[in-house]
Write a structure and sequence with these properties.
Elements lengths: L1 H27 L5 H33 L7 E4 H11 L1 H5 L4 E6 L3 E4 L1 H18 L5 E9 L2 E7 L7 H4 L21 H11 L12
Parallel strand pairs: 2-4
Antiparallel strand pairs: 1-3, 4-5
Amino acid sequence: RREFSANVSHELKTPLTSISGFAEIISSGMYQSEEDLKVFGRRILDESHRMMSLIDTIMHLSKVEETETTIKWKPVEVAGLVRYAAELIKPQADKKNIVVELDMEPVHVYGNAALLSELAMNLLDNAIKFSPENGTITMFLRHENDSVQFILEDEGPGIADDAKARIFDKFYQVDGSHKAEGNGLGLALVKRIVDIAGGTIKAENREY
């Protein structure tokens, strides 16, 4: 918990430092032109959004962890949840001209619809972030013996062997170039949901 608090403080301090710096330039009149003023204003807005996203995710993760014993479980039709998640995230995929394909069997599980929807959305969001433009993301849903198997494939650059075991850790980000797009908590939330559901999750590189 102490480590988590320290990480939260560090992650919040970065955008706050940027906001404070740009606001100081604006308030002191040290900018050179109206265009500079617009640029600084946009950066303050972007950093504010990043900080709000981080806070929302932290609160969501804490809520999931704290309410684990009070989560309501009932039969859930999983394919419908995945289709809906794909529809919700389509505008984000369209920005990079990414096609999301679905290959799913009708699957029912005893679980929590809200958590499973969150799981699908976070996996899709992460896949879009690391996929190249004009790429394809494919999601498979099928029965596997006595369990359900959900697979998401993207055309991203892959993950180094030493990073595979850490990508589900809180605040861990494999590629620093995408830091502004996320906060390192999306996959940690996915892992927590999988743990609560009694499942397992892993990342693998595609074999060519």
